[in-house]
Design brief:
199 residues; alpha/beta; Maf protein; 7-stranded mixed beta sheet; 7 strands; 29% helix; 23% strand; metal ion binding; hydrolase; ITPase-like_fam
Length: 199
């Protein structure tokens, strides 16, 4: 069994993400942002969520000298052969969430509901050190489908287009507490906690 890790560097410069992950992981771990150690961001050259998560975690472990946790997340739409996938955040050429959502709606114009199946994906990689040959990998999936129009004002990214049958609404219409229970990120973190024996 792996010994529990008490302090981790989160491979992110986003304080909001730090807060979300800290809430999901609880008090057993203390998370620190990689920006405490370096402003440099590694190039995401992987061709899958898990490859990019490993690249980011390895970089964070290298610059901090501490164990590092990274996630790579996005939306995979079946009709579009998994797109926008690893390019979810920059699907519309690096513009904002609204532009990404509009591009997705255009790509699915005229596609019936039964062919609009999709899932949010979160791949987590935990590296004990920068040269760790056996990172801990956990994946969370959240199944749904893509709506024909934007609904709701909560969340971010593709939340206003992602229909969740559990609640019969878009992810952007869910209470934050419920989204944090159902989401792909929550599912991946639950697996990680089991692996680290934090449950």
């Amino acid at each position: 069994m792996n010994p529990p890790v008490r302090e981790l560097v989160l491979a992110s410069h986003n304080a909001g993400k730090l807060k979300e992950f800290q809430a999901l992981l609880g008090d057993s771990l203390r998370l620190r942002l990689v920006s405490e150690f370096s402003k440099e961001e590694p190039e995401e050259t992987g061709l899958s969520f898990v490859e990019n998560a490993i690249l980011k975690a390895r970089h964070a472990a290298r610059v901090s000298g501490l164990p590092a946790l990274a996630d790579d997340s996005g939306l995979a739409v079946d009709f579009l052969d998994g797109a926008p996938g690893i390019y979810s955040a920059r699907y519309a050429g690096g513009k904002d969430d609204k532009a990404n959502n509009l591009k997705l709606l255009q790509a699915l114009q005229g596609v019936p509901d039964e062919q609009r199946t999709a899932r949010f994906v979160c791949s987590l990689a935990l590296m004990r050190h920068a040269e760790d040959p056996l990172p801990i990998l956990c994946e969370g999936l959240w199944e749904g489908r893509i709506l024909h129009e934007i609904r709701g004002h909560g969340g971010f990214g593709y939340d206003p287009l992602f229909w969740t049958s559990d609640w019969g609404c878009s992810s952007a219409e869910l209470p934050a507490s419920e989204k944090n229970r159902l989401s792909h990120r929550a599912r991946a973190v639950a697996l990680l906690k089991q692996r680290l024996e934090l449950v």
